[in-house]
Amino acid sequence: MKGELNLISRIALMGAGSLGTTLGAFLSKAGYDIILVDAYKAHVDVLNETGAHIIGAIDEVIPVKACYADAMEGTFDLFIYMAKQTYNDVAIPQMLAHSHDKTIIVTCQNGLPEPGVAKYFPKERVMGAPIAWGGIFQGPGCTYLTVAPDKMFCTIGTYTGEHTSQLEEVAKILSAGNAVTVSDNLMGLRWCKLTLNACFSGVSTITGCNFGEIIQDPELMRLVAYIGRECVLTAKAGGVKMEPYHFGGEEYHFEEFYDFPGDDPDMKVITDAAVGYLMPAAPTIASMLQDIKRDLRCEVDGITGAVCDAGDAGGIDTPVNDQLRDMIKKIEAGKMPYERANAKLIKF
Q1: CA-based Rg of the chain, rounded to a whole angstrom?
Q2: Which end of the chain is more exposed for a tag (fewer CB within 10 A), N or C?
Q3: Share above pLDDT 90 across residues of the chain, in percent, rounded to a whole number
Q4: Membrane-spanning regions, if any (predicted)?
Q5: How far apart are CA 194 and CA 159, in angstroms?
Q6: Does residue 16 contact residue 24 with C-beta atoms inside 8 Å?
Q7: Share above pLDDT 70 across residues of the chain, in percent, rounded to a whole number
Q8: Which of 274, 157, 271 is CA-nearest to residue 219?
């Protein structure tokens, strides 16, 4: 195992949205010196005054420390980066200004964020931790947790693929907020999570449906199947061995049930799997849709767009994801509503 213990003491969580608020609160409760950093003034104020109120799977108020980015002081040993990629141009310079030569960045963002982060930070200090649980932001100081705490988990790996002592240390810290699995195949983990997001977050955003409603709708699940196939084929073309999705002690291999021939997806297998790994988070709606409802920029380019761009680079056609990206951009721009009927407009 390479590297020496980094002895992480000061932690900043950048982006205290629905997931960041929950993870930051759980790490605070575990005794870590962590501050939640966010640009939403009313949210920061309530977090400092009354704590983080987590509802849904639990109902608990947890004291936390929070601040605006321009109020950060000194340097931090670890940044847990949870702001959406749409804010990289603002958040990355803010983290750089409060880093030292051993600061570690672990990005929990959606999509394939590590290359973008590694443009600014030494690649050996960059880690990725795809999150496998959901939340819905309720308003200042409050977030809705869509799964029970014992079902929360993430995976983590280094951008270089090395298994280091720093990786183990960060994994231990994150384990105070959710179960953690360490892997040496970060890109395989990323493509697994990206496939899940492209399928269900994409469909949720254009229809307004939550994940449970999608799973129970055969027409929407057929759309999910075709989105998933393009993801799997694109990952394979890029030389990525996709990792299985873990939930409830089971493994779900997207490469197997989304890589179907012709126009014959096994919808029973695909739907039964989704019931197993995603129905426990049935109330979840896509974070892209949550942002659109709040008149914020959504991260379609980092999710659906990441599949389209990787397909272009690898010579794989992604017509379903291309249509999905264009539709989400129109919804974001206010040129069309999000509604169930939109699914009928996607051709595959």
Answers
A1: 19
A2: N
A3: 92
A4: none
A5: 16
A6: yes
A7: 98
A8: 271
CA distance 275 to 201: 16
Summarised one tens digit per residue, pLDDT across range 248-265 is 788 999 999 999 988 899
* φ and ψ of 84, to 5 deg: -70, 155
| Residue 138 in this model has a pLDDT that exceeds 80 | yes
Q: Which of 97, 150, 160, 151 is nearest to 125 (CA)?
A: 160
**Number of other CB atoms surrounding residue 251 within 10 Å:** 10
- CA 335 from chain center: how many Å? 26
Closest CA to 161 of 134, 184, 131: 184
Helix orientation angle between 218-237 and 319-332, rounded to the nearest 10 degrees? 110
Spans of all domains in the chain: 11-184, 189-345
User: Nearest 5°: phi and psi at 78?
Assistant: -145, 130
Q: What does the pLDDT look like over 181-221, one tens digit per residue? A: 999 999 999 999 999 999 999 999 999 999 999 999 999 99
- Please give the pLDDT value at position 249: 80
Secondary structure (DSSP) of 209-247: --HHHHHT-HHHHHHHHHHHHHHHHHHHHTT--PPPEEE
The CATH code of domain 189-345 reads 1.10.1040.10
Longest dimension (CA), the chain: 57
Q: How far apart are CA 157 and CA 163, in angstroms?
A: 8
- Give the C-alpha distances (Å, rounded to integers) separating 132 from 152, 197, 200: 7, 10, 13
Helix (H) or strand (E) holding 56: strand 52-56
Q: In terms of Cα–Cα distance, which of 195, 143, 149 is closest to 19?
A: 143
Which two tokens mark 166?
């720093």
In this structure, what is the dihedral angle of CA atoms 34, 39, 41, 46, given to the nearest 10 degrees? -30
